[in-house]
Amino acid sequence: MDCSSPIRILLADDHAIVRRALCSFIVGEADMVVVGEAANGDEAFKISIALHPTLALIDIAMPVSGGIPAIAKIVRCCNDTEVLALSAHDDPMFVRAALDAGAHGYILKKAEPTTLLLAIRSLCKGHTFLDPLLSDLAIQGIRRIPASHAVRGTDVLSPREKEVLILLAEGYTPSQIARELLITAKTVETYRARICEKVGSHARSDMYRYAAANDLLRTIA
User: The domain that contains 109 carries what CATH number?
Assistant: First the structure.
């Protein structure tokens, strides 16, 4: 990748205040410029196709197609764009999901601004980057997670429970799921409790494993 020109960055996060903060970290850097912003996965993909940024910083938990599917689409269709996954989650399942989708790096939202800038420059130089705040346990967990994990089939779940499971597995919060499915947060929690009982675990990582093993994670059109 040619880094003689400024690194052209797309910021994708469904919270405007987060995008403003990220932009403020980048605006003073002579070798970086923000060329676009997106509030959901579909917007992130469309802007990437239109602008071909040097780097796309993608929140993995966004509405409308989700951050993970958006990463996969950008990686597939924009060969000249590096993708840095952004997340509040340090669970190895989410790190693995982002990397499996094609992300070239993973950074936590609690990272220092200097770490973000280091990650951007590292990807520009062709390196991968994992946030140093990820624990050794998390890194070991990424390596231990098998590509497929045998679990019970999804016939035990209702169609709506499958929808909620998919969004939970992709990192959506209950409030985000409520907005996405046009139901109340309380209803989401009810579905979540049912799913936990049927899957046999309350851990989000197990929900991801269950969804992945049963081909429930949303595919890329």
Answer: 3.40.50.2300
Instruction: Mark whether 171 and 135 lie in a shared domain.
Output: no
- Angle of helix 16-26 relative to helix 113-124, nearest 10 degrees? 70
- The token pair that represents 21 in the structure block: 């903060």
Q: Rounded to two decimals, what is the model's pTM?
A: 0.68
Local structure of 89: helix, strand or coil? coil
Q: Are residues 183 and 110 in the same domain?
A: no
81 and 118 assigned to the same domain: yes
Report if residue 29 sits inside a domain: yes
Say which residue the tokens 């966004």 belong to: 62
Domain termination site, one of 119, 144, 169: 144
Indicate if 58 and 97 belong to the same structural domain. yes
Query: Does residue 149 lie in a domain region?
Result: no
- Per-residue confidence of the chain (221 residues) as pLDDT tens digits? 455 689 999 999 999 999 999 999 999 899 999 999 999 999 999 999 999 999 999 999 887 777 888 998 999 999 899 999 999 888 777 888 888 888 999 999 999 999 999 999 999 998 889 888 886 655 555 555 444 333 344 467 888 988 898 888 777 888 989 998 999 999 999 998 888 887 766 666 667 767 766 667 654 44
- DSSP output for 162-202: HHHHHHHHTT--HHHHHHHHTS-HHHHHHHHHHHHHHHT--
